[in-house]
Design a protein that fits this description.
The complex is a heterodimer of chains A (251) and B (402).
Chain A (H helix, E strand, L loop, with lengths): L1 H8 L10 H15 L9 H4 L6 H7 L6 E6 L8 H10 L11 E6 L8 E6 L8 H5 L5 E3 L6 E3 L9 H5 L6 E3 L5 E3 L17 H5 L5 E5 L6 H6 L6 E2 L11 E4 L2
Parallel strand pairs in A: 1-10
Antiparallel strand pairs in A: 1-8, 2-3, 4-5, 6-7, 9-10
Chain B lengths: L9 H14 L2 H27 L15 H24 L10 H20 L5 H10 L6 H24 L3 H27 L11 H28 L6 H33 L7 H8 L4 H23 L4 H28 L21 H24 L9
Classes of the chains: A alpha+beta (251), B mainly alpha (402).
Amino acid sequence: MNTDKDFSSLKNEGLENVSNQERRDFLKMGLAITGIFAGGTLFSAVSTFSRAHASDFAKKYPYKPHYSMVMQQHRCIDCERCMEACAATNNVPNRPGNYRTTILEKETPDAIGGKLEFIPVLCNQCNLPQCTRVCPTKATYKDKTTGIVLMDTKKCIGCLTCQLGCPYNARYFDEKNRHAVDKCNFCWDTRISKGEKDTACAQACPADVRIFGDLSNQEDRIFKIVHQIERPVWVLRPESGTRPNVFYTKG
Amino acid sequence: MAHHHTTPTLNELVSGVADRLKTAGTGFYLMVFVSLCMVLVATGLGLMTMFKGHEAYYNVYREVPWGILIAAYVFFVVTSTGLCLVSSIGHVFGVKDFMPIAKRSVFLSIATILSGFFVIAFEIKIPWKMAIYNVISPNLTSNIWWMGTLYGIYLAFMFAEYIFLLLDKHRPAVICGFSGSVAGIAAHSNLGAVFGLLMGREYWQGPYMPIYFIASAMMTGCAVIILFHILGHKVNNEQMTPDMQRALEVTTKIGILLITVILFFTTWKLIAGAAGQPGGAWPIVHSEVVGHHAFIFWFFEILMGMAGPLVLFILSKGRDMKLMLIASVSMVIGIFVMRYNLVYLGQALPVYYSLGVNEFKEMLNYFPSIYEWIITAGGFGLTALLFLIGEKVFDGHKVEEH
């Protein structure tokens, strides 16, 4: 009762008195909380995690190091240097449909300002991968230490079920070099296992779109990007339930 | 030699086969020649694509990796499972009316699964590795692994069953027939699960596929039992016995029932894909019912595969062999296209469709290459060849009266 009276006796300050900065902060907060993002592909559970939940992360990121990638989507200009670096580093044949990573192009004709976005995609190194479940011969498997989904090419019979199981179109059959299905392995054999800190695509990117790192390390840059609430963070196709390890952000 | 007095000696068997082959007409040899050529050409081209790489010869690609050869494989193993299950009603479960179709059906279930293996050998990129790594590196969560393994067991049981039927050893034949049916159902539902358990492929996903596959196998089984028993009597120039006529009459009745079951399944599958317009299924169902795939769906799958044969079977009352022959041929063609629709349409929606990107705004197209068609035809050639030879070698698969 008392509060009601106090509230009704308050003077209306008027919207015109709210500064631009305050409006922006308010909108930002709304975005972070409700997780609105065009396309409805937001993974809001991750973006609302805070340091208070640090003890949960070990369960959430079961690998050490838990390799993953964040795409700062708004920075991508489709220069394709990542694709070139990947193909050159990983001996990817120059044939139609043979690639480990690519850049998708999305148009939003009714957008105000920029109407074109570029979305880099690659294997999401999922925590619950479909490809490894469906493979009859364990030719593809999740590495127990790093969580990277790897190929044991000699075991691949070429049934291509993994290609259909993958919700990210991340696999192709390499008829030229490997005679097996091939996919992104975060440059495990060509760079990371040899002590390099970055994948070839992340290193080649001139716009700092691709950030590669260890999600199990709270000091890592990628951890900090994924665990803030200022900017939306999402994953592609969360509905397929594979718990991907490639995150997207913008703004 | 302690032969039973009714069991012929080996010499008698050989001379019997020789007599039957000698008296066979030109038409028979022409059909043998044609089907043999189909098998040989398909084998030659299949081996060539295997060694030179499928990429240059097949029209499948990264986003649509499974084409008509997978559809053909599914068709042949569906047929085999159906032959096994429908014929088991008689010789395994003791329903007397179905007894006369036992031998030919079991023989054909072996012929059709071999045709399935023939086709899949040219679809899998490195099939010989399958034989090695399925054994030494099995993945027990993989439906493909279970399907392959269980079909291997199934084939062994069907072989054993047929041999026991030939030797007239009823009890072991029943045991093998029962075991074969169990292995067949397990294998075939796993094939359904290969599609049904792929997350993120909404058109396929769910328990529908394994259930549908079994029911649809039995429907197919009825069609091919009717088809090959009528053809078998034509090849051997023989009149059908009243027992055989009765067996085909009851098979037609089961066929009518199963067509309505599959029509019912198909109806609900379409309604489920339309109601609420689920993102991963609606564009596919739309193209299937009214879009660019509608003619193939309505004409082949619905009209030729089910609705037409349903009417013809009812009109035939299970006794008009001409109508039943037309209906079963139409059904075989329709069901083949049904498998093709199932395999292709599940892949037709790009995984990034909902993202709205320029690369994947449209449904994905696929049409088989000439090589894929020829190898598919080779699978049919192999079934035809084994059927024709089987008729002469096993003397029309006659079932002895007990």
